[in-house]
Q: What sequence folds into this?
C-alpha cells in the first residue's frame, strides 16, 4: 500500500501576500481522495521526532536556537518565513514524516511526503523556506539505524539542493545529484557530487534526454540501496520562480521515469514534494497529483 505522510500543520497559515503557496498542502490530499487515487488508509500522520536524527544532520547550537525562537533577524529574513513556534513545530513534523516514510518505503517499495523537500536547509542555518533538511535527516536515520548504507539523493527541483550538498560534501556514503536551472536561485551554488545545470527555457525534450541519459548510469555507478527523490514541480513553464519551460506532460514523464526505474531495480524510494509556484494553484495540484497517480499505477 502506498503510504503518504500528511499532517494538518503542513498548511500552516502565513501572512497575507506571502508568495509560498501553503494551500497546496491542503488541496493535494483532498484532490487525491476526491478522484479515488488514494483513500484514508493511504495517509499517516507524523508527529514530533526524537532529536537524535535531527542532530545527526544539524548542528546542536543551530537546532536549539531554532527551537527556542532565537534566530537573528538576518537569519529569519534568509529563511524566508516569519519565525513562530507553529512553524518550527511544522518543520520537525515534516522531518518525522520523511523518517517514517523511509520505513514504509523499505516495506512497500515507495512512500511519499505531501510536504518536505527542504533541500536549502544547511547543517547550521535555514534558507529559502527550509529550516530542517528532511531528506538529509531521513538518509542519516537509515544509515544510523543500519537500514541502509549507500544512499542516492535525486533532486529534480528547479533550484539546486545547496543545503543537501553542504551536509554531505565530505561523505562518500551519500551521493547528491541535482539537476536544476543554471541561472536560478541559489546564485552561489554549492558543489553536489553531480550537478547538471540547465539553461533558462529548457523544455521537455532536452530535460528528459539529460535525465534519461544520466540516471541509469548513475545508479549503476553508485549502487545505492535506498533513493530519495525530490520531485519539485517548479520546472513547469508556468512557474513564477522556475525559468524552465517544461509542460505538465513532461513533468509527468520525468516522474514516471524515476519511479519506474527505481521500481524495476527494486530500490526503495522516498519522495518529498519540493517546490511549485505556478500562478494557478490548479496547475500545481495537477502536477503534484500526477506523482501519486504514477506511484499507485507502477507499484500497486
A:
Amino acid at each position: 500500500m502506498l503510504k503518504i505522510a500528511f499532517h494538518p500543520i503542513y498548511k500552516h497559515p502565513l501572512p497575507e501576500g506571502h508568495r509560498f503557496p501553503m494551500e497546496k498542502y491542503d488541496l493535494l490530499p483532498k484532490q487525491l481522495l476526491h478522484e479515488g487515487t488514494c483513500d484514508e488508509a493511504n495517509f499517516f500522520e507524523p508527529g514530533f521526532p526524537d532529536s537524535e536524527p535531527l542532530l545527526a544532520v544539524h548542528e546542536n547550537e543551530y537546532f536549539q536556537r531554532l527551537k527556542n525562537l532565537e534566530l537573528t533577524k538576518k537569519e529569519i529574513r534568509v529563511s524566508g518565513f516569519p519565525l513562530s513556534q507553529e512553524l518550527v513545530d511544522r518543520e520537525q513534523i515534516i522531518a518525522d514524516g520523511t523518517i517514517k516514510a523511509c520505513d514504509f518505503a523499505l516495506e512497500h517499495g515507495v512512500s511519499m511526503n505531501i510536504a518536505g523537500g527542504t533541500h536549502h536547509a544547511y547543517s547550521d542555518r535555514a534558507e529559502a523556506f527550509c529550516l530542517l533538511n528532511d531528506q538529509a535527516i531521513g538518509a542519516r536515520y537509515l544509515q544510523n539505524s543500519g537500514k541502509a548504507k549507500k544512499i542516492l539523493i535525486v533532486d529534480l527541483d528547479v533550484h539546486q539542493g545547496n543545503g543537501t550538498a553542504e551536509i554531505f560534501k565530505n561523505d562518500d556514503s551519500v551521493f547528491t545529484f541535482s539537476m536544476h536551472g543554471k541561472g536560478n536561485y541559489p546564485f552561489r551554488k554549492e558543489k553536489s557530487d553531480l550537478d547538471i545545470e540547465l539553461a533558462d527555457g529548457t523544455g521537455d525534450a532536452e530535460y528528459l534526454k539529460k535525465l534519461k541519459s544520466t540516471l541509469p548510469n548513475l545508479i549503476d555507478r553508485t549502487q545505492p540501496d535506498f533513493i530519495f527523490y525530490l520531485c519539485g514541480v517548479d520546472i513547469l513553464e508556468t512557474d513564477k520562480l522556475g525559468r524552465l519551460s517544461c509542460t505538465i506532460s513532461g513533468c509527468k514523464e520525468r516522474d514516471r521515469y524515476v519511479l519506474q526505474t527505481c521500481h524495476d531495480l527494486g530500490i526503495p524510494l522516498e519522495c518529498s514534494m519540493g517546490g511549485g509556484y505556478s500562478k494557478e494553484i490548479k496547475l500545481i495540484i495537477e502536477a503534484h497529483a500526477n506523482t501519486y497517480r504514477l506511484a499507485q499505477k507502477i507499484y500497486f
Remarks:
- The chain is about 45% helix and 10% strand.
- Residues 3-299 form a domain with the Arginase; Chain A fold (CATH 3.40.800.20).
- The chain has a mean pLDDT of 96.
